[in-house]
């Protein structure tokens, strides 16, 4: 769909968008009723509304076929349920953008495919780990602690940091499953730094799978059974090691698994035969 089609469709529904989103009372009622049917007193108490404000908005919503009144109880119509679902998605997405503005602003987001950017609401229950003047490696330290407790590690990295070799070796020692997707440059650097013998030992582990990706990757992330950790490159092209977005939320972890699958589909298995070439 081109921009003209999009704008034409917007012109046709902008009044509906305005009706639903510009009144905080109407928005709150719609979201509240999405959780179940309620009478007037329940809505007033739950949302902290005066009777006049609540009744005025309820009548407006009823006139637009968004809610239905049966006896003394209000519920969403089918259209109202659709509005509620899409409104909640929109609000969570905006919340995620605003709350974690530091990691989005002046950072490269093209490493995240569009279908997952559309699901950015899945990251709404996250937090930022940032470097401080007295702890400049705080993102790394926090990440290391999390990985040391993980049993299933999936990671993609177009950057090299030597301590991570030991981090993954220790994970394998405790019988964790590790899947890494690395760029050719990072594979070459890891081989040079760790040595063929050590890399051979790692590749020989039944719990370790290594993949090479030719695509220019501009995102650094790890997803495990317990957390997602996401880092981005600055718009100047350098990886920003001073800030990570981290989440323990189930939706965020699922989002991270989708992101890993996206890159895994574009990667090739790297094994001992490749190492000898």
Automatic annotation (TrEMBL):
Q: Which residues form the Methanogenesis regulatory protein FilR1 middle domain?
A: 138-265
State the organism's lineage.
Archaea, Methanobacteriati, Methanobacteriota, Methanomada group, Methanobacteria
User: Which Pfam families does this one have?
Assistant: FilR1_middle (PF08350)
**Which species is this record about?**
Methanobacterium bryantii
Q: The organism sits in which domain of life?
A: Archaea
Protein name per the record: Methanogenesis regulatory protein FilR1 middle domain-containing protein
InterPro entries hit by this protein: FilR1_middle_dom, Tscrpt_reg_HTH_AF0396-typ3, WH-like_DNA-bd_sf, WH_DNA-bd_sf
